[in-house]
Every structure is written in structure tokens, then in C-alpha cells.
Amino acid sequence: MENKNFAVGLDIGTTKIVAMIGSYNEYGKMEILGIGKAKSLGVHRGVVNNITQTIQSIQQAVEDAETNSGIQISEVVAGIAGQHIRSLQHSDYITRKDGEEVINERDIESLCNQVHKLVMLPGEEIIHVLPQDYKVDGQAEITEPKGMYGARLEANFHVVVGQVTSIRNIGRCIKSAGLDFAGITLEPLASANAVLSQEEKEAGVALIDIGGGTTDLAIFKDGIIRHTAVIPFGGNVITEDIKEGCSIIEKQAEMLKIKFGSAWPGENKDNEIVSIPGLRGREPKEITLKNLSKIIHARVVEIIEQVYAEIKAYGNDEQKKKLIAGIVITGGGAELKHLKQLVEYTTGMDTRIGFPNEHLAGNSDTETLSPIYATAVGLVLNSLQKNGKYKEEPIQNEAIATDEEKETSGTEENQSNIPKARKSFFEKWAEKFKEFLDNAE
Q: Is 317 helix (H, G, I), strand (E, B) or coil?
């Protein structure tokens, strides 16, 4: 990207692929410069299963965004989700050579690097290493150990793991679409960045991003990410159920869901009927809205229960871990009527619908403020926050900055929500990954 002032996020979803271009305005808010959307045909449950179709959809979305904005796109930051993503808690420590010197960025980095050496299951790779809290010489609950004296530095980590092949396939699609691959971010983390306020992250909140193929969960408490999970179904299974339950084609089922669907059967009267044209010369079908919402309700409850099981597994019942800010729902599925009430009823937790306007400039188009675009907005935001620290230095891009530049740039870290130590190796990882892709040509 020649112009460092903008970033491009590519949300490769199961139902749609979105390319979004954004930049900071003079007030430090993000402005959306262009957006492109294409139907996603080669992705199933967040995982690429048809390379050719995915490349075409990416190209279409990118061209669309370029036409809208008049900006040439050369590199993108992509999101990753899919049922292969899992997360684990891990603690590790290093013993420092010189306890008389204060702890610096390099110590934190070598501790995080150690976690990157964890032995994973065959075919798995660490995507993110997120420090939660630190211990210095046994003193616990330290959020920022830099500048302290100590010989032993310990930390608890939240480690996100995914399948190597899935990550490589995304990289391959982006490269084949003629773009540079600037980095990869876990989609629930991106969505969280777009829709949650700092206060919610402090108080404790669960973000549920209901997409077409997957439902992503990210739990924050005390401003730190505590738990992530990807549940392998989303809006598409609801459409599938309507299709089978009403014996209609998928296109009609999707339209029924969007136009007349509700997650709460109680509100529809028995005599409310929708008529659907029959296929070629066949009689039209009549479907009662009560039946429609019963089908939707059953499936949505199933998704919510799975998510709630994850929230319980995190430990929401313990007083210390309680999520005071409750639940925020975003993603395309968040637009389903009466979903908020159903989630509150099922979980007993306060719920709101998350719109990605937390960091957006006030003049943003109302369409882009839809929950559908939460992940794309978050990806652009993450990328802008990473690039923010390079504004003074003309570095090509953060994934291929030299080690010296990384060390100097680490000191001018901007106040983003991203834990500081993990950036530099994420960059190293991106660098390795780029090399891998180049060699695979």
C-alpha cells in the first residue's frame, strides 16, 4: 500500500465476502472510504472449500470497493474463523539473567516467543498469543510489568490455535486474487474491536457474532480477552431448516427468514399466512408465520444454548468472573426480529445488538453501520491501529519491517486495545507466512 493512511479489511465469510477501505480522520475516528461486497460461494462454515470460486468472489469484492472509492487496493488484512479454531489457557515463565535491570519489551517478547514454541496437535498452528496478566517474582495480577524489577517473569496466556491448511488456503486465495497478504486476525477479535466499548470490556461482556456459517464468541473481562470460541453453525442452518420444513427452495427460504422471520413464535397469530409462488406451473405454497417462527425459534435456541455453554465454561457463575455488561450480538444474524428478547430469556443476561459505530466517524453511511459489517470494520480498525505507530517512518508494511525497526517502533505503541507484546511476533509470523506463500509459487 503506497498510501499508509488507509487500510483494507477482507472479511471472507460463508455467505458474503466484504472488502472495506478505511482511514482515520483528523479526530482519530475511522472513516469508511469504500466498501465492496460479493456473494461467497467457495466457503463452508468459515473454511475455504473451493479455491477458484473464493478467488473470484474476492476479486469481485475488491473491484467493487475500488470502484466505490477510487483507491487502488494492493494489500489486505484478512479475518479467520471456522470450526477448526480453538483456544486454550497456558501459563509460562522466564528467568531473567539480571534481576537488577528493569523488565523491558524484549523480556515480554521472549516470554511470548516461548509460548509460540508450544507443541500443537499435528496440522495446527498458533494464530494469536494474548497475554492476560503477569506475575513478577511471585507478585500476581500485574497488567503491565514493563519498568519493574524482578528475576522471574510469569504470565497467563490465551492462545488461539487454528489449522495450518485453512490459514494457508486463505493466503493462497488472497495471493491468487493479485493481492498482498498483510496479516490475519481472528474474526471474533475484529468484531469485538468494532462494536464493544472499553467500559464493556472492563465490566465483562460476551460478544456473539452470528454469521452465515459460524457463530463466533469472544469474552472480555477487566479489559482483557478471556475466552474465544467458534461454534460451527449460524444463519445458514436456520435457512436450511426453513427450506426443509416448508419444502421450498433456498432462495425463498432466505427471503422468508429476512422479511417475515422472528425468533419469538408467540407474537404471530394463527391466521397470518404468506404465499410463496410455486416452481414452474405448480400451485403456490401457503406458509403460516407461526410455523415459520417456530422453525426459526427451535434452531436459534440451539445456537444460543451452545454459546451459553461456552460462557458457563468460562466461569460466568463465579462472582469474580461475572460478565456485568452481559451479551452483545452482532453479525448478519443479529438482524433477526426479537432475537435480543430470546437471548435475554434463554440466558438471563442483559443483551444489546452491537452496531459497528463505536469508532466510526459520525457521517458514516447508515448501511455500513449494520451489524453485518462488524467484522470488516474491526479488521480495518485493527490494521489502522497497527499501522498508526509507523506514520513517521516510511516502512513498506508491518509484516516485513526489519527487527531493528520493530524494536524502535514498539516504543511508540499507540493506545490500542491490542495487547502490546504480541504485535511484533505476529508480524514475524506474517513475515514467515509471506515467505512460505512466495516459495509455494
A: coil
Cβ atoms within 10 A of the Cβ of 302, count? Answer: 15
**What's the pLDDT score for residue 237?**
94
- How far is it, in rounded angstroms, from Cα 195 to Cα 209? 10
343 within 8 A of 303, measured Cβ to Cβ:
no
Is residue 356 within 8 A of residue 330, CB to CB? The reply is yes
d(CA 209, CA 187): 9
Q: What are the Cα distances from residue 27, in Å, to 23, 31, 262, 417?
A: 11, 10, 40, 18
Q: Quick one: CA dihedral 407, 413, 418, 419, positive or negative?
A: positive
Strands, DSSP E only, in 137-204?
A: 139-142, 152-163, 180-186
Structural contact between residues 191 and 209, judged by C-beta atoms closer than 8 angstroms: yes
Handedness of CA 304, 310, 314, 315 (dihedral sign): positive
Q: Is the pTM of this model over 0.70?
A: yes
Helices and strands, number each (H, E), in the chain: 12, 18
Tens digit of pLDDT for each residue in 382-412?
999 887 633 333 323 333 333 333 333 333 3
DSSP assignment of 376-441, as one string?
HHHHHHHHHHHHHTTSSS--S-GGG--HHHHHHHHHT----SS-TTHHHHHHHHHHHHHHHHHHT-
Q: What share of the chain is helix, strand, coil (3-state, %, to 5)?
A: 40, 30, 30
Domain residue limits, the chain:
197-356
Report which listed range, 55-69, 358-372, 409-423, is most confident: 55-69
Rounded distance between C-alpha atoms, residue 345 and residue 301, angstroms:
10
Which residues, in sequence order, are CB contacts of 19 under 8 Å at separation 6+? 8, 9, 10, 35, 36, 37, 58, 61, 62, 64, 65, 73, 76, 376
User: What is the DSSP code string of 132-154?
Assistant: EEEEETTEEEES--TT-B-SEEE
| 3-class SS of residue 167 | helix
DSSP state of 37: E
Work out the average pLDDT over 169-197.
92
In CATH, the architecture of 197-356 is: 2-Layer Sandwich (3.30)
Strand partners, 230: 216
Of residues 397, 210, 220, the one with CA closest to residue 306: 210
Q: Which residue has the cell 479489511?
A: 9
What distance in Å separates the CA atoms of residue 385 and residue 336, rounded to the nearest whole number?
Answer: 32
Instruction: Output the nine-digit C-alpha cell for 181.
Output: 497478504
Residue with cell 477487566: 222
